Amino acid sequence: MNGPFAYQAKPDEASKPVAAAADARVTPMMAQYTEIKLAHPNCLLFYRMGDFYELFFEDAEIASRTLGIVLTKRGKHLGEDIPMCGVPVEKAEDYLQRLIAAGHRVAVCEQTEDPAEAKKRGAKSVVARGVVRLVTPGTITEESLLDPARANLLVAVARRRVGDQAFVYGLAAIDISTGRFTVAEVEAGQLAAELARLDPRELLVPDALLDDPELASLWREIRTSITPMARDGLDAASADRRLKDYFGVASLDAFGAFTRTEVAAAALVLGYVDRTQLGSRPPLSPPTREAVGGTLLIDAATRANLELTRTLSGERGGSLLAAVDRTLTSAGGRLLAERLAGPSTDLAVIRARHDAVSYLVTRAFLREGLRSRLRAAPDMARALSRLTLGRGGPRDLAALRDGLSVAGVIAELLAEKDGEEGGGLPAAADRPEELARAAKALAGLAPELAHDLQGALADDLPLLKRDGGFVRAGHLPALDEARLLQADSRRFIAALQARYVGETGCRTLKVKHNNVLGYFVEVPQAAGEDFLKPPLNELFVHRQTMAGTMRFSTVELGELEAKIASASDRAVRLELAVFDELVGSVVAHAEPIKRAADALGLIDVTAGLADLAADLGWCRPEVDDSLAFRIEGGRHPVVEAALKASGGTFVANDCDLSAPGGGVGAVTLITGPNMAGKSTYLRQNALIVVLAQMGAFVPARAARIGIVDRLFSRVGAADDLARGRSTFMVEMIETAAILNQAGPRSLVILDEIGRGTATFDGLSIAWAAVEHLEAVNRSRALFATHYHELTALADRLAHVSNATMRVTDWHGDVVFLHEVVPGAADRSYGIQVAKLAGLPAPVIARAREVLDQLEKTERETPVAALIDDLPLFAATLKEVAPPKASAVAGPDRLREALAGIEPDEMTPREALEALYRLKKAAADGA
């Protein structure tokens, strides 16, 4: 079945109850249910019955398993029991959250008339019901269902052919909860990386793309809810018209120039929003186009390896985001995550962000002032969205009230001069562009709306508007009167009775109440005779004569009775009218409110990054358009934070991947034992790039980074048994992606390539990969390996160098110093590490015996001596290895070189390598 929810379709799902709708044995209620279910066959139907949402048939079975609630039965259907479960209406959001998290979609079916009206139509009539909303992962807005610090993106994909074989893809991303709307067009090779960056909660994919065999692996790997869309999509003209109609414009040119693919994706996602929101339109901003190549391209595997926003186990704690997040608002948390997921490649944008962070780093007083106010800033964007969609409540209005107040205070802070800072700092007018724009968005923001909200809303607010009690006392006199009648009717009756006693002179007059007459005036029969005569009979109307008493009513008493009887309903109606009026004012100011919400998020991110830099001593990186890469005293932000928490100290290390003379990147081969810190060193340099280009300061003494356009990382691997892939196969697939896509502006991080196969196979692959990186990709790269034979490449390839993790051997035990120094490791210390891990002593002893024998064999027939004879390496070296600039060496230089050698101080491997260097120098000199 095609359509927006076809992913759940089953051949006979819902067909059984639907087909029976015309059966005489079907009750009117079940007939209504099956008709509604037929219209939404691939959603769980929340069918409102009084104070519960009921689910029937297969929906009930699914919900009971997912929610852990009891599955019961309700009557018979075609002779069989009807499975049923239900959830209370007041707890519905909690259950919805769990169903959405499990990947389900829910159609919420409400009663659309008063049950009393249904009874008037006859005993067999059922209350009218209808679906008022479709709840899907990408369209939720409820606060309890959303992650405050994560965007809730709904993304649509469209495709267009641009050649005989080539395609381009359009992406449209909407966050209904905030109004964000962006579009982009990417090449086929960038699609997976862009989807990984966006990390949508729900992905809309046309059937034709889902059925494309070349994209099958992509859809399998995406860990999000995929919703198939009908094959017969919109044509170009219809797609263009849908966008123009939604935003009420005659042309899309006012929003920028969009490609046909971007418009198609945007129309697809808007159509889905219309369908799921049943005509309610969220306050979407006009679509903005994200430039191709405007963000650092990071594929899904690299994101997972580097643990940017989540660890490999899926947790936020332990990720880079958790380590650097000092935001205080939901909007700030979302913006920080967005910047971290997609660091910029625009030099102007990066420098503007660094300017803003630097400004607040040097102004502690202003920074702390901003952060102290931001703590009180609510999530205005999501509150605005809920109110616009008709799902908001009094607390959403209060969020805007408080947000507008915070915005005004922060605008004043940013407008003040820096007299408190001292030191001759620039005035407010000289503030960085980002902060200046934010201050402008906050200044003078809807003062009349802020005043109205402040005056109308009470301090303590209910969750739901129907509960009443959210309008401040004194705001509306009629409401105050209704509340007074509701709360103190006895006092009003006593006051009226006292007045009647005074006017008639009858001290025995009482105002009473019963279910027949309602409120009435009762006097002794003797006094009552006077009430039947003028002038009292003009006020009092005789109702009943009893033994010894007479009863009367008055127009005033009747009006008071009506007011008392309807006081509660009247109070609620008056409050709802105030609510609607305030919502109307909010919607009228939607655009400036959204700009202010974005501004608060930007200020929060900037102040948080500045606080982080000032607290931890991070430096401002120098980012330019060169191919430089020099880090002095770099540190891993996540590992350092963990060590600091436990009282440890992180050992800082330098990294220089700037090739001599520039022009291309350099490859550094890193050797050393396991546990020495190679992987940490690899990752920290990649994370420094991410931080620098997202606009943050970096954990280093100094850093100069030429813009990186693509970041690749292959650190560690796991098998993929479900798809028949071994660990080594996964490793090779990831390595192939790197070698096929990396370019001169890329940064490549590789760890232990080739270790999952036989020694010579792995060594051959690793050797060839290094040569390819240096000669073909020409990327800046860090390559960690246990193949010490690879270190010989530093003498053969112009842009390859060696570095090693410094360790020491103390009485047979290895001591890790975690320092990176030039040179190559002489051994791997694997047995020492195994001993630390707790392998049995006999195993360790036997391993030493085997190692001694193997090293003896190595000395007799060293692998390094055979490398030049291997056809793969010999042929490759002749093709790609550039000659060394200082290759000429005559007899005098040989003697000088020999004089500098101290054989007694060299290891066997170092002596062997020195011999090869002398032999090569002699050949070059000849």
UniProtKB/TrEMBL annotation:
<comment type="function">
    <text>This protein is involved in the repair of mismatches in DNA. It is possible that it carries out the mismatch recognition step. This protein has a weak ATPase activity.</text>
</comment>
<dbReference type="InterPro" id="IPR007696">
    <property type="entry name" value="DNA_mismatch_repair_MutS_core"/>
</dbReference>
<dbReference type="InterPro" id="IPR036187">
    <property type="entry name" value="DNA_mismatch_repair_MutS_sf"/>
</dbReference>
<dbReference type="InterPro" id="IPR036678">
    <property type="entry name" value="MutS_con_dom_sf"/>
</dbReference>
<dbReference type="InterPro" id="IPR007860">
    <property type="entry name" value="DNA_mmatch_repair_MutS_con_dom"/>
</dbReference>
<keyword id="KW-0547">Nucleotide-binding</keyword>
<dbReference type="InterPro" id="IPR000432">
    <property type="entry name" value="DNA_mismatch_repair_MutS_C"/>
</dbReference>
<dbReference type="GO" id="GO:0005524">
    <property type="term" value="F:ATP binding"/>
</dbReference>
<dbReference type="Pfam" id="PF05192">
    <property type="entry name" value="MutS_III"/>
</dbReference>
<dbReference type="Pfam" id="PF05190">
    <property type="entry name" value="MutS_IV"/>
</dbReference>
<dbReference type="GO" id="GO:0140664">
    <property type="term" value="F:ATP-dependent DNA damage sensor activity"/>
</dbReference>
<protein>
    <recommendedName>
        <fullName>DNA mismatch repair protein MutS</fullName>
    </recommendedName>
</protein>
<dbReference type="InterPro" id="IPR007861">
    <property type="entry name" value="DNA_mismatch_repair_MutS_clamp"/>
</dbReference>
<dbReference type="GO" id="GO:0006298">
    <property type="term" value="P:mismatch repair"/>
</dbReference>
<dbReference type="InterPro" id="IPR005748">
    <property type="entry name" value="DNA_mismatch_repair_MutS"/>
</dbReference>
<dbReference type="GO" id="GO:0003684">
    <property type="term" value="F:damaged DNA binding"/>
</dbReference>
<dbReference type="InterPro" id="IPR016151">
    <property type="entry name" value="DNA_mismatch_repair_MutS_N"/>
</dbReference>
<feature type="domain" description="DNA mismatch repair proteins mutS family">
    <location>
        <begin position="746"/>
        <end position="762"/>
    </location>
</feature>
<keyword id="KW-0227">DNA damage</keyword>
<comment type="similarity">
    <text>Belongs to the DNA mismatch repair MutS family.</text>
</comment>
<dbReference type="InterPro" id="IPR007695">
    <property type="entry name" value="DNA_mismatch_repair_MutS-lik_N"/>
</dbReference>
<dbReference type="InterPro" id="IPR027417">
    <property type="entry name" value="P-loop_NTPase"/>
</dbReference>
<dbReference type="InterPro" id="IPR045076">
    <property type="entry name" value="MutS"/>
</dbReference>
<dbReference type="Pfam" id="PF01624">
    <property type="entry name" value="MutS_I"/>
</dbReference>
<dbReference type="Pfam" id="PF00488">
    <property type="entry name" value="MutS_V"/>
</dbReference>
<keyword id="KW-0067">ATP-binding</keyword>
<feature type="binding site">
    <location>
        <begin position="672"/>
        <end position="679"/>
    </location>
    <ligand>
        <name>ATP</name>
    </ligand>
</feature>
<keyword id="KW-0234">DNA repair</keyword>
<dbReference type="GO" id="GO:0030983">
    <property type="term" value="F:mismatched DNA binding"/>
</dbReference>
<dbReference type="InterPro" id="IPR017261">
    <property type="entry name" value="DNA_mismatch_repair_MutS/MSH"/>
</dbReference>
<dbReference type="GO" id="GO:0005829">
    <property type="term" value="C:cytosol"/>
</dbReference>
<keyword id="KW-0238">DNA-binding</keyword>
<dbReference type="Pfam" id="PF05188">
    <property type="entry name" value="MutS_II"/>
</dbReference>
